[in-house]
Specification:
Length: 104
């Protein structure tokens, strides 16, 4: 079985941090995550990012990275360092208090 997943964004290196640019078609994803953040700002927030490793020769493998959420400017998420550059983002989920959020 072959599944083709459409990327929702791209990861870019930005100095000591990384930035995840979410494509405008998927901007609702960012808005949903931010609405969950506003409930309790004192929690530590991490992101779980599923992305296609550009340097991997295997077309069917993805990489999962966990990083700290730092800031949001529009549809750009500033996060802690991710070992990726120009990787296609397949999914981003917010982790609050050890639980990964859903899109509902």
């Amino acid at each position: 079985m072959r599944i083709n997943l459409e990327p929702i964004g791209i990861i870019k290196k930005a100095g000591k941090c990384s930035e995840i640019l979410i494509y405008s078609d998927f901007e609702q994803l960012v808005k949903n995550m931010m609405s969950k953040l506003s409930r309790d700002e004192t929690d530590q927030h991490s992101l779980v990012v599923v992305h296609k490793n550009k340097e991997s020769s295997d077309l069917h493998q993805v990489q999962i990275s966990k990083t700290q959420f730092i800031d949001r400017v529009g549809n750009i998420l500033k996060v802690g360092k991710i070992d990726a550059n120009d990787d296609s983002v397949i999914d981003v989920r917010l982790e609050c208090n050890g639980f990964i959020t859903t899109e509902a």
